[in-house]
Amino acid sequence: QQQVKQSPQSLIVQKGGISIINCAYENTAFDYFPWYQQFPGKGPALLIAIRPDVSEKKEGRFTISFNKSAKQFSLHIMDSQPGDSATYFCAASSTGGYQKVTFGTGTKLQVIP
Amino acid sequence: EAGVTQFPSHSVIEKGQTVTLRCDPISGHDNLYWYRRVMGKEIKFLLHFVKESKQDESGMPNNRFLAERTGGTYSTLKVQPAELEDSGVYFCASSSWTSEYEQYFGPGTRLTVT
Known about the structure:
heterodimer; B: mainly beta; globular
């Protein structure tokens, strides 16, 4: 059972455009939602994270939007650059117990010049 | 500060053989996690150590997998005997008590069982 569903599987965006990746979760015990960025040959790196008490968090060109009632959250990359080309994973965890992270299936983003 | 390191980066073994993966967490990090990504699927949790104790091993697939963290420093994950379905990328991550939800991942070990 996929507890965190992520779409799209792949995404091609032109330089300067907006990249949008969507995720949905089922477990209402999740209360920490990180996004990871992974480049080829590297491990996932924490990019930005949000807790459900806020609806949006912005760090530079990266913004997480969070809809608690719909159990959905998304990553927006503004002014996408070729250097943003990577695989992005949404994830969720429950801070009340063990901190294991449940990941989405990943989105391979390609930003073309 | 050195990041999480994993050894080897790649391993190709035959079905039935034994392989041991190693993870060195960031110095001072008490929490150590193992995850696995099978091709095309999500990264899945395997287990969580707090220092040398197994806090949560609910994700371990079966008893062919044995994880240890003697002395609370580095960890090993042994697969014995390996099966074809064990192929994938094994990631290790660590976190500290001060920011325990921020997990830092290593580059992974790509395991291929033929």
